[in-house]
Specification:
There is one protein chain. The protein is of the alpha/beta class. It has one domain: P-loop containing nucleotide triphosphate hydrolases (Rossmann fold, 3-Layer(aba) Sandwich), CATH 3.40.50. It is built from six helices and ten strands. A six-stranded mixed sheet has the order 6-7-8-3-9-10, sandwiched between helices. β7, α5 and β8 form a beta-alpha-beta unit. It starts with 6 loop residues before the first strand and ends in a 6-residue tail after the last strand.
């Protein structure tokens, strides 16, 4: 699949959310916020074809419904709030990790030799982001990717992620609550209110 296409939702409906029409341009970060239980994570899972839903999702001219689920999820990659780890060592998940990326995220190459059980929740979160990016997706869905990080580390991750998004031209949906973070990373901000998406005024992307 191409790596610089729009991600488009047309008439998407899941749970209480209905008739969602939304286009995220290549290289654009759209932040999504809303109260707990409003449906943010379910919406990401629908976009990733992990939950049944009505409507259609498009990546460029390719419809989600026309692509096998595993192929779609490799292209439109979800990084959930709680990452999944199936092998014992970090390097089994990141066989081709770039030392520069590890350094940017606050690690030394030695982390690759650690058992996954040694990782803190914040370390898992950062490495799960690197794992997703290293798989060369066409779009990213990020569910509170800095929720378990202190402010300094969160800023570090933001800088790295935004740089990669601009470099690769990925459309991104990023669930976030911190208005300061949203102002820093997003070109657009949508909030779920009363089972619908409301677009909020957002600082221009520079």
């Amino acid at each position: 699949m191409p790596t610089a296409d729009n991600l488009r939702l047309h008439g998407l409906a899941i749970g209480e959310l209905t008739d969602i029409d939304l286009t995220i341009a290549p290289g654009e970060i759209l932040c999504l916020s809303g109260a707990s239980g409003s449906g943010k994570s379910r919406l990401l899972r629908a976009i990733a074809d992990l939950e049944p839903h009505d409507g259609e999702v498009w990546l460029g001219d390719r419809a989600q419904s026309a692509i096998p689920g595993h192929a779609w999820r490799r292209a439109v990659m979800l990084v959930p709030a709680e990452s999944h780890w199936w092998a014992e060592r970090v390097d089994e998940h990141l066989p081709d990790a770039d030392p520069a990326d590890l350094e940017a995220l606050g690690f030394t190459p030695e982390v690759l030799h650690w058992p996954v059980a040694r990782l803190s929740s914040g370390e898992k979160q950062r490495l799960a982001l690197l794992r997703a990016v290293s798989r060369d997706p066409a779009a990213l869905l990020l569910d509170e990717p800095t929720a378990n990080l202190d402010d300094a580390t969160a800023r570090r991750v933001e800088t790295w992620l935004v740089s990669r998004v601009r470099e690769r031209g990925w459309p991104v949906v990023w669930v976030a609550h911190d208005r300061a973070q949203i102002a820093r990373v997003a070109q657009r901000h949508c909030r779920i209110e009363d089972s619908r998406l409301v677009e909020e005024a957002q600082t221009a992307w520079t």
